Amino acid sequence: MSESLSFKTLGQDNPKGLPRIFYSSHPDDFGKYFEMVWKWLSEFQKIALFYEPADDEMPVDQLYSDLQTMQLIVVPVTTKLLQDSCRITQIILPFANQERIPVLPLMMEQGLDALFNKKIGNIQYLAPFDTDPSAIPFKIKLGRYLENSLLSSEMMEKVRDAFDAYIFMSYRKKDRFYAQDLMKLIHKRRSCRDFAIWYDEFLVPGEDFNDAIQKALADSTIFALVVTPNLLERPAGHPNYIMQYEYPQAVESGKPILPVEMIKTDKNGLVEAFDAMPECISKSREESIAGWITDHAYPIALHEDSPEHNFFIGLAYLDGIDVEVDRERAVRLITESAENGLEEAVRKLVSMYHDGKGVTRSYQTSIQWRLKLMAMIRQQYDDHLRDQKDVTLVRETEALGDAYMEAGLLEEARSSYQEMKELAGDISRVYLAEETKILLADSLYKLGEIYHSLGIPERAVEYYQDSLKVYEAMPEKHKIRWILYNKIGDALCSQFSRMREGPAMYQKALEEIARLSRIETSLDIRRSLAISYRKTHKLEKALEITEAIVEETGTIEDKRELSILYNTMGVQIRSEARWSKRECFEKAYKIRKAIADETRTFGAYRDLARIYENLGEAKREEANDDKTGYDQAIEFYSRAVDIRRRLNDEIGSDKTRYELAWSLLCLGIPGDRKFLQEALDICDSLVTDYPQDKRFRMIRGRISEFVQDDKAREAYCLRSYRYGLDY
Question: Is residue 706 part of a domain?
Fold first, then answer.
């Protein structure tokens, strides 16, 4: 077993002093995602990414010790991770939850939400491969998250400047646990709380670290020595590194030497090996250790107790910056600083409770601190401490609305966005800068999103249109106008009385993105253009772009998009098209089967079940000509049901239940009536659990008709077909 974690830094730099992030994944996913995640994280700042090689696991106690020093744990979430029993779900995540180490899940596959919530919990994740072009891009979300979670180099310097002095801790590598215990022992007393400790835990193996140790000794006030029998060992008959280098340098420099006996050690052996060693102090004599340190360091100590000083010391204990990680002390210090009016401390508590860093994750508590932050900013405006052109309050009001949205508190989010709109409107009438106009437009857009989420599409259209009016005056904002035209189109199409107006909005969206594509040819723009072609039924053009993207990238995500397009072409096929419905579905099937065989993920099997259903529908339509040949259709439907049943057994969400009911309906129409009854039972339970969802009531009504009337069922077999699931 390995005795230490491996790590990666830019240029194999020394990881000491860098933000420490731990990467953990299912063993089968390590080779697939480690370098990808490293590249994403290292784009934003210099970090040290630690990991446990899948084939060289550490002893659990040692792993726990190292995990306690981490500032963040990053986890790629896959079907394998959620379905298999593995080290991360059994050991690492429970420990992170217990020790309040923040975890950032990266959702690498689609369709895992219900299983993720069931196995991991109801925590927010980032989706690197989110195909919604109207969503905030993943890289922007990741950058914001890391900015809130990791300290900048500038802030880390401020933290280090807040320490009273540095203690150099000398210990044998095999005594690392005792070194960590001594750190805690030293800092236990309030008088020693603000002393930093240098120790060489993160020196790069094989590097010439003599210079680093000499510099650390020179910068330190006290030389602390971890005394155990290991200190007397002579590897291969030669003095160990402490005997030969560290201790003699400390004596030569005249540093006060504090030997602390962590385990009973031969005193005569110490006298022989270490010239002029002072008498050891037993670890049990805590007061003597603290008194010795304050006696020798008192003249240079800062003795500061301001909110800002305590905030920096709190950050040090939160992230283990030259001290051991002590999250309880960190939270206490940061909270005291916040309660004493330090704005930086309040902001830190907002992110800490949101991410679960050092505290139990609580979106509600995070919101409460955000409300206190807004009250402080309002007071600064009232006291004329902020320029009235400052848009900080508008942005904080927006952030509060976003926090309410994330917590599922839609009405509170609506109220915050309404306030944001009023604040932005007031500022924009006085200061005509583009920034204030954009804030006003964004508030209108977010109100549109709220009303769409609340199931009031007519109000959503109004707010989307008001936002669009602002952006229409900004010639370069093609992508934002494209998003808004699509949003308006979607909201119109969801209203029976106005659904005919939707296509005109999709056409305007196409015009915007087409103009932008003549200027910019990025993958994002080309994907957006393909979506617009699909929404305006220009399927051949969408296909041309999507096929080129797949040829260029070869990613699973782009291949899946191509399969969705083939599926859409099969549903919307025209008589003059070059392929039949069945041929389009078969092309989609070929891609989806290959993806399922390669990845074996939940999303891939869900896609495969859908294409089996459509192949069955196409075969059933062909069979209608002579009212025979339903056997092949039933075979396809049966494969779909088998997959849907397995996925529902594993997850059991409203989505998997609904989709199983749909597959059973498809199978039951030309096949055995018992499948219709099973589908009806599922829909009855869905209507009971989700009485507001119209989909469940509609499909239950249709199935009830078929169950009660065989003639209706037979007649449906002979009519044209509706392809009810849209992927």
Answer: yes
d(CA 558, CA 553): 7
Check whether residue 721 and residue 624 sit in a common domain.
yes
pLDDT digits (tens, 9 = 90+) for 94-128: 999 999 999 999 998 877 887 888 788 777 889 88
- How far apart are the C-alpha atoms of 659 and 665, rounded to whole Å? 10
**Does the residue 692 lie in any domain?**
yes
Q: Residue 53 and residue 30: Cα distance in Å, rounded?
A: 8
Do 173 and 295 lie in a common domain? Answer: yes
Domain that holds residue 319: 308-386
Domain membership flag for residue 579:
no
Dist. CA 119–CA 108, nearest whole Å: 16
**β-pair partners for 51:** 6, 23
* Torsion sign (Cα): 313, 184, 23, 367: negative
Same structural domain, 268 and 315: no
* 40 lies in the same domain as 89: yes
Average pLDDT taken over every residue of the chain: 87
pLDDT tens for each residue of 526-573: 999 999 998 998 999 999 999 999 999 888 888 999 999 999 888 887
Tally of domains in the chain: 4
Please check whether residues 253 and 352 belong to one and the same domain: no
pLDDT of 285 over the 70 cut: yes
| Beta strands 165-170; 222-227: pairing state | parallel
Residues 513 and 533: their CA atoms lie apart, in Å, by 10
Q: Residue range 290-304: average pLDDT?
A: 74
Most confident residue range from 82-86, 268-272, 458-462: 458-462
Which has the closest alpha carbon to 89: 33, 28, 24?
Answer: 24
| Angle between helix 410-430 and helix 392-406 axes, rounded to 10 deg | 160
Residue 447's CB is within 10 A of a number of other CB atoms, namely: 24
Residues 185 and 59 in one domain: no
Residue with tokens 């399969």: 563
The better pLDDT of the pair 450, 716 is held by 450
Model pLDDT, residue 340? 96
Residue 415 lies in a domain: no
Residues 292 and 317 in one domain: no
**Helix ranges, 29-103 (H):** 30-42, 60-67, 79-83, 87, 93-99
Determine contact, residues 545/523, Cβ cutoff 8 Å.
no
> Apex CA 626: angle with CA 620 and CA 631, to 5°?
40
Q: Angle of helix 694-708 relative to helix 654-668, nearest 10 degrees? A: 30
The Cα–Cα gap between 674 and 667 comes to: 10
Long-range contacts of 386-389 (CB under 8 A, 24+ apart): 388/427, 388/430, 389/427, 389/430, 389/431, 389/433
CATH number at residue 663: 1.25.40
Q: What is the pTM of this model?
A: 0.81
Token output for 605: 């099997």
